[in-house]
Amino acid sequence: MNAPLASGKSLLLETQSKPVVIPPMPDYNGRVLAYVGAAAVIFTGLLSHTFADWLIWLVPGALLWPHAVHFLTRQTFLRRYSRVRHKMLHVDCALGGAFAGTIGLVATPSLSIMMMLMFSCMLLGGLRQWLFGIFWFALAAVAGLAMNGMAVSLQAPLVLSVVAILATATFICITAFYAHQQARALMSAKTQIQYQREQSIALSHKLSKYLSPQVWQSIFTGERDVRLETQRKKLSIFFSDIKGFTELSEEMEPEALTELLNHYFNEMSQVALKYGGTIDKFVGDSIMIFFGDPTSRGPREDALACVSMAIDMRKHMKIMRQKWRSQGIKTPLEIRMGISAGYATVGNFGAENRMDYTIIGKEVNLASRLESLADPGEILVSYETFSLIKDKIMCRDKGEITVKGFGRPVPIYEVIDFRRDLGAERSFMEHEKAGFAMYLDSEKVRGYERAAILQALEDAAERLRQGED
């Protein structure tokens, strides 16, 4: 006698709001349903004199067995075994095979019991469980046949066939209904998870605007923990501000000034990110950027990237200044910059509920001091920065300065340009007079734009010649 385990796997999906539990048909309910159907088949077989009378004891056994299994798997030491459900289904398959063999493999009842068992095996454990079920069923059926022999006729009476088919159909339909409900709950949970995932992505992108992209990426990829911790690292530190901004703020309306400042910050941020800089903060018209954390290419490459960024910013500022002049802003705006390389403390500072990712140290103070000493359009660097970049960047000695926190005067240098861009082979050219401004970076000119640029220069030259006449 047998009773299959009518149960699939339980699924637990975590969402942001609460866990979504997708329950299968309970083991206990499924087993009761199957064994009640088996008891009905046995009782009908006894009434039709298809089965031997001594099998009457299997009817109460079939009705009591599910309760015994429930007690064993929930109240005894067996509950500690993770695969007890699979093992009990093996027992069910063996009981079903023994029953089929005992009744001499009468076709309809044997197939009915086998179908319920195999359906349960496939639901619970897939192909592996199904193969084990076939093995135990066949083994027990052979043992039953050895004891009682084959039935005289494998054909079952009509009433027994109808009851067996109804019992199997009822079991499969109810179990399939639970599986359908489980699939619907799974699809609903997947939709909910997808919606919350999209919300999380959108929210993370909004929050990323308040952090440097490198910091945001290291947090969301799990490389960095959000906790109060710092470390000492060798960094290249950059400060800049706009010379003439104070005078401009007195001339312009706050709304127009805000738009100009945001445009300036946006353009400079794009340059900083192009070179891999970590944007620390904006203060007034000042920008603080550093290289070397959370990612670093080595002190030399970090310093070179930092100075390259500063040179690019200086060139870009000239282009923006011309654009602002065309918009009616006559106050000449110049950027001044200071760069220092050395060890600083970097990490999360503040409180547990409000942190700021930044850097502190005397090198930070030195970079700020260099920026304040720089003339409009000038880039000043410390000696250590100069020593790291001097093979690729031309610098001019500017003497020494005294800085708080340093025991002796600090040598400083003015950045001229890339060595490759000096002389006749330079890629960047500029010329600015009243009524005329030209900025040419030949490396950035696209091929299809050259003809238009040459035509504009020829038109300008022709107009200048006409003015001379």
UniProtKB/TrEMBL annotation:
Keywords assigned: Membrane, Transmembrane, Transmembrane helix
Keyword Repeat attached: no
CDD domains: CHD (cd07302)
Pfam hit, one: MASE2
Transmembrane segments annotated in the record for this chain: 32-48, 54-72, 93-118, 130-151, 158-179
Residue ranges of domain Guanylate cyclase in the record: 236-371
Protein's UniProt name: Adenylate cyclase
